[in-house]
Amino acid sequence: MPFLGTALNGAGLIFLTHAVYSTHEHSVAFAASPVPLDITIELLLSIFLLSAGIVLSSPDFKPIQWAQWSGKISRETRKGEGQWTREGEEFLSEGDPYAFLGLDGGIGGKSEGRRGFWDVRAKRKEYEEWVKSGGQS
């Protein structure tokens, strides 16, 4: 497909150049009249050919593998820099770039992960367990 995409890009570029040149010549010769229909059609055809050529010559998408990426981040050790934010969290130089969100307790632990956020699903499950136990703490 790269050859077809390159050929369409070349043809589209030629048509686009000719349409722009024809528009310029028409506007110089006939300043008061609108652009003729054949120049407009040639311009639209060139845009279509260029768009199709760009899509066909582009490389295939690579799959995003967030699970592998996040697993790698969680396995790496994090090193603190000894500097702290106003909220009392340490700046981390390596490892998890999202550690400042405080997700450690929420993903696999029992506590809520992000400070200031309420885990609705966990609270709903906790409420269901409370109701099943007869409303006793």
From TrEMBL:
It comes from the Eukaryota. GO terms for biological process: protein folding in endoplasmic reticulum. One of its GO terms (cellular component) is EMC complex. It holds the Pfam family MMgT. It is found in: Endomembrane system. It is a multi-pass membrane protein. The keyword Lipid metabolism does not apply. The keyword Transmembrane applies. Keywords: Membrane, Transmembrane, Transmembrane helix. Belongs to the membrane magnesium transporter (TC 1.A.67) family. This is Magnesium transporter.
